[in-house]
Amino acid sequence: MKSEIAFGADWLRLTRIFDAPRPMLFKWWTTGERLQQWFGIRGMTRCEIETDFRVGGLFKQSMQMAGGGEFKSSGVYEEIIIPEKIVYRTTFGATSTRVTVDFIELGKRTKLILNHEGPVDRAMAERMSKGTESALDMLDELVRKEVMQPGEDQP
Description:
The protein is an alpha+beta fold. The chain has helices spanning about 20-25, 30-35, 120-150; strands spanning about 5, 10-20, 45-50, 60-65, 70-80, 85-90, 95-105, 110-115.
């Protein structure tokens, strides 16, 4: 399923429904090891993520793109409500945005709403939406596999 994407003057919102329970989907956002598997774009050759998943905790991402470019971002977690919400401020290049990720339970499915707020112009929002859509596609593949073959610690 593709995301619904909306833009405003200084915001970007992506909404997607995953065929996975909320606790499972939320868990994919909580460790560097899990984030490295999907939190980038298709075609990246390397993705390294360090995260201290707690309010006030820091995270860093370094991603090597096919063709040679490197993308780096960092941020700090501002709010975490397990398994409902994650809010963080992220910086990449000269851009800083506040990101809110809401996980809304829909029975065995989960609606994910991801909002970027801050100095996001239309061109930047379009680039960010393409990258985020690619990452969410990879996340969708991973949670679908997990739903099909749940581990011992999964719902």
